[in-house]
Structures are given as C-alpha cells and as structure tokens.
Input
Amino acid sequence: MIKERDEMSRTTIIPFGPQHPAFLEPLNLSLKLSEETVIGAEINYGYNHRGLEKALTSDFRRSIYMCERVCGICSFFHSTAYCQSLESLFQVQVPERARYIRTIMMESQRLTSHLLALGHTAEAIGFESLFMQLFRERESIMRMVNDISGNRVHYSMNAIGGVRRDISAQQRSDIVSRMDGLEVRFEELAKIFEKDPTIRARTVGKGVLTPEIARSYGVVGPVARASGIAQDLRETYCQGLSFRPVVREEGDAYARSMVRVEEILRSIDLIRQTASELPGGALNIPFRGRPTGETFTRLEAPRGELLYYVRAKGTTDLERIKIKTPAFVNVAALSAMVPGCEMADIPVITVSVDPCICCTER
Amino acid sequence: MAMLSIVLRNLITGPVTTRYPEGPADIPEGNRGRVDWNMEACTLCGLCQKRCPTLALKVDKKAGTITLEVFRCIACGVCVDACPQEAIGMIAETSRPGYFKDVRIYQKEVTEERDEGPPQP
Output
C-alpha cells in the first residue's frame, strides 16, 4: 500500500523538532512522508551534548555529584551506578541497610519517572485531565523523597561505600502509608489507561516493534519488555524480595504504556517490602586510597539497562568513564517504529518510548 | 466513566496547589536550601573548602572569612557533614534568581590583636 501511494505522490521530508510544541525533548526527526503516511525517519542527535563523560574524569570523589546531573529524571540511578563501580574498584561491600535505602530511593525515582512518562503520553494524546491526575500523584512521591533526602531531584544521598542519609522509623511508616494511599488512587488511573476508548484509539497498533526488530536494535527496559523480551536486571538486584518483571507481547505504544502502568504497581510493592524489612546496621563503609583497575556496572534504570564503565590508574582523576544510557538505544529504535504510521501519531509514538535526550547525549 | 468520577470528586475536594507567590511557598522542613555558617562556632579549619565538590567555597584563615559563591553551590550538604564543629547548617528555602552571581562573605569576629595586611583588591 505504501508503495502504491509512493508512485502516485511525491515524497516530502518534514523536520520534526528539536523545538516542537509536541516534543518535550530536543530531538530532531527527519520524517519522510508520502501524503500523511510516514515512510521513513532519520534521527539526528547532538543538540544537547555537554561533554559530561570527559568532565566526569576529574576528582573521583567530586564526580558523584556531577553524575547526578547527567539526567534529572534518573539522577539517583546514575550516582548509584557510579558508586557501585567505584565500590567494586575499592572492593568495598556495601552494608545491607545502605543497599535497602538505595532500593527505596531508586524505586521511588522509578515511580516519578514512569508517572512522568505516562503523564506525557496522556498529554500527547490530548487527555489533559489524566495528565493532571498523574502529575498530582507524582507530586506526592516528590514530596516523599524530599522529606527523606532534602531535595526533589538531586538527592545527593549516595557515597562511595554506602549512603549519606538514614531513613528514620517515622519516615518508614510514612513511606508505607503513602504507598498504600498511592496504590488505591493509582489503580483507578490504571483502569483509565487500560480501558479508555480515547487512549486505546490513539495507541493500540501504533508504532509496533516486533521482538525480532527489538532484538536487532538492542532495545532495553519497558520498550523491550513491551515487545516480549523478558529482561529486567532487578531480578538479580532485588534478591530476597518478591519481584518478577512485567512482560507484554504486543509491542505497540499501548503495550509500552501498560508495561509502565504495571511496573508502577510492582515498584509500589517493592518499596513497601523494602521499607518494612529495612535491616539495621551501618550506613556506609569507609574506603582508603585511590582507585585502580577497570569495571563494568549495570543497573535497571526507569528506561532500561544503564551501564557504567570506569577505568582508573591509581590517581585522583579517573582515566575514562563510559556511560551507556537506556534512552540512547531506545530512541534509535524509533526509526523502526514510525514507518507506516500517520504523521499525527508521531508525538504519541515518540513519547511512548520515553526519550530522554539528557541521557542520550550526555 | 472512571475519569468522570475523579473529576466530580475533585470539584468537591478543592485545589491541591498552593497560591504561590501570592501566598507563602510550601517548602518542606528539612529541605536542603541555603547553606549558613555560624561563625562563632567556626574555627576556620578549611575542611568544608576541601570537601566541596563544586569548589564554591574559599576559607581565608588570615582575614577570618568564608566566601561562598552562591551560584556554584549545589546544596549537597557535604560541608554540613564534614564540619567537626557543627558550625554549618542548612536553611529550608529556595534559591532566588538574581541579576548578578552573588557572593556571600561570612566574617569571623577576631578578638585578639593582629597585624593588618595590605588591603585586598
């Protein structure tokens, strides 16, 4: 059908972004159109490049705080991945309490990230009232992390060898009660996502990514899990807690949103388990000297697998840091999702991937 | 229909937002805001300057001052944790926008006599 249209009409190339009212991120797509149908897309990166990988190779103690600035939505994941890398270089075993506190903060940040992604999906669809409701729930989580860490976005809680701030008994019970309240309210919103005819009309069958193509692009996180690839690093990280990944088979924009919806409920459950089983003990273990050697660290960030490679040569400055962010591979898969869709579906499909250009271009 | 019931409920419960800037801002207690020195307790040891990840601080032992470049400070709280005298605290407030890159100087009151050096530029 695309071929027939191609013969009848001239193809047009339309630049979409980096500044576009429907895009929240500075991403540029060169869309090849035949009438209203997209027949190809080229993704152009580089509008937000800040050279952070080089900047991070300065003093290894100071870089923890700069790592958080790689991305504002998954800041804690970046600093955790960095700290875990240095802990493995120093051969420090993080205390169990610090590991649990990190899990609580990471899952809380996953909640804020997924609620943001779902809110933006609702906004791209034109469902403003649902967007407002999702952001209201997100605000209650932001408030909770602010109470724990003292900041809404950059928690500054990580240290090499553990965490810097403790969670008191009062805060633990507050976390559990907040999670109970959020679960009830979010289940109501999840039903809207699942059944609402407007959302279904705009997302079902749009931007399909088959498992084979998903594997060839190497997509990660909710995008991979929506295409039937059951991979979630939390299965190994959350040992001792009951957790299983959310997997769907459809591979369309609807499946990607629904994976996030179900992951929010799983994260609420994980936070509740961790907060109620928080073990006692030290918060962090001191380390001595300067790092030497090289290491890889992998973490399940909200958008998928986050990878840190650190190489040190025994000086205060690190030799090399390489960050592979999940958004980098997921955004590339857009070029396989958009062919065949209508021009008006581009914002919804793009937002369903949850692109983060801050992460992508570092 | 599920959305309609939420909308109707919201009509009764009222807004969740605060009327800032007309009303007071809703800043939680324990928020990491402005860093503040208690110069009576401070011994000018310089540990805060050494630990500061953004190099926003300068401790001048001779002049008895601590100079903070406000726009460089990320309010991470490392200096608060590092201070052995517990002279550094954090005030829960949001940073204000400004026309200039503000610099705050904290002066320690000097009790003993000391030689005045040449005036600082």
